[in-house]
Write a structure and sequence with these properties.
Largest sheet: 7 strands, mixed
Number of domains: 1
Radius of gyration: 16 Å
Oligomer: single chain
Strand content: 35-45%
Strand order of the largest sheet: 5-6-4-3-7-8-9
Shape: globular
Structural class: alpha/beta
CATH architecture: 3-Layer(aba) Sandwich
Amino acid sequence: MDLKQHIRSIPDFPKPGILFYDIATLLAHSEAWKSTIDQLAEIIRPMKPTALAGIESRGFLVAAPLALHLGLGFFMIRKSGKLPGPTIAHEYALEYGTDTIEIQEDAVKADDRIVVLDDLLATGGTLAASIDLIHQQGADNGAKVVGAACVVELTFLDGRQRLDVPFESLVTYDS
């Protein structure tokens, strides 16, 4: 199935000059969404993960059903202050300033093999920071990130160059 047929392009969102690729139309089409999860499962399975992590917020929409499909656990990577209980934070640089993401303190289990998912890879900053956060948490217990994946990749922004793990995407846009 050609997933691009189910992804809507919205010009000038969230600001003028930006072309936004919206997966809401993909989610609304049950056959296309099922094909998306099936295709992601095929590229994730060889990485032999024991858990999936989803990046706030559309990454949750990708990672949670995929974890269920593969029979794996799932945990959330969220902006600061959004998770209950003890958390581990990671601050990272943005183009102008910084941001902070967190996971719950007990999210990463000993010897976990984690794949990190989001809906879209643009510049790669948030995905790279998420991988760094999990590496930081897993450094003492043998857990590691074994890969990352997104539904959509904006190849012209070179986001995959910032990642230090294998990366896969289902749909690419070159401009």
